[in-house]
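S1.2 Input.
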Amino acid sequence: MARYFDEFVPPEGVKAELLRGVIVMRVGPGLVHNRIVAEVQDRIARQRWSPLQRQGIEILGEASEPVPDLAVLARDLLPDSGRLLPSRLITMVVEVVSETGVHYDYVIKRPIYAAGKIPAYLIIDPIMAHCVLLTKPSGQGDEADYRSQEIVEFGDPLPLDDLGLELGTDEFGTFSGVRPHRYP
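S1.3 Output.
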């Protein structure tokens, strides 16, 4: 399936990902989402890290090519070219939850990123006004998961030990008029 996905071109303004063998397409994100991604990206020290927006990830043994909102890897590990970044190079992925992406970000992508041994998975949720930091990946395939979970409300600082920084969350926006969900 992945080799066919290489040739797939989604319509303009649509994000396409291969998740467990299924092509998932969603409309582009809104202003709240984009501002949060920009805030996080701006706070990551570029001298040491390369924060990349909407970069496809290759995870060995998975029929998945997720495209997180932000992938962060050490600057000296950044390849010169390529469509997909090997998951072994990535220190953290960030997903900002959208109204239509709750299940994907909390349920579908969690074991995929854990199977890729990505040390930190940060879910920023403007629906629930909190961040969920998942660390310590273990297991393989569908059974992979993160052993550690920390939830921080918007307004409180979030220590990102893997990046050596404390992320302020006080400027993160929220969605209004969106029904709360039950995750995590």
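S1.4 Remarks. The first strand starts at residue 14 and ends at 19.
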